[in-house]
Predict the structure.
Amino acid sequence: KNEVEQSPQNLTAQEGEFITINCSYSVGISALHWLQQHPGGGIVSLFMLSSGKKKHGRLIATINIQEKHSSLHITASHPRDSAVYICAVEEGTDKLIFGTGTRLQVFP
Amino acid sequence: KAGVTQTPRYLIKTRGQQVTLSCSPISGHRSVSWYQQTPGQGLQFLFEYFSETQRNKGNFPGRFSGRQFSNSRSEMNVSTLELGDSALYLCASRRTGERAFFGQGTRLTVV
C-alpha cells in the first residue's frame, strides 16, 4: 500500500465547476504539500500545510491531521487549471513522499 | 528574484557512462533536494543537502550521489548509467519551514 494515496487519478470538468482532489497518508508527517505540474515538467508549489486551511485565489487546501487526510479544492475551474496535481507529505526534514498525482482536464 | 536553475535541460547518454547534473538554488535557500520522476514510479526522493551536508537519502543505489557547495549550489552524479535511469531529474530549494521551489528539471535519456 502506498504511503500517500490520491483520488481520483483522473478528473474532467467543465469550466466553472467546483473541483475536489483528495489525499490520504499513512505516515507521521511534519507538513503536507500540494504541487501543480504542467506538461513539460515544471512543478509549482501551491500550498504547504501543517494544520487547518489555506486559501490562495480560487484554490483552497485543508488538512485533518487526526484523520490523515487533505483536500485541494478549486473553485470556478478554468481550462488553465488543467494540470497534474500532486500531494506530497514531508517526513522528517525536507524528505517528501509523493502521491501518484491527479490529472485534471477542464474543458471550456 | 531568479528561480531555481537546473542545467542542462536535456541530456542523452550511453549506458555505462556517468552524468553530472547541476542545480542553482534561489539565493538565500540553503536546502536543496533532488527527485527522480519516471512514468512508472512517479516522483521519488533522491537526497537532500543543507549547508553542504547530506541530511536525508532516499532508496536509490550508491551509483546516485550528490554534493553541495558553500554557495548552496548542488550537483548530482549518476555513475554507470542504466537504461532505467532515464527520467526527469528535479531539484528544489527552500528555506527551512517554507514552501519548496522547483527547477524545470533535467530530462536524461540513456540509450
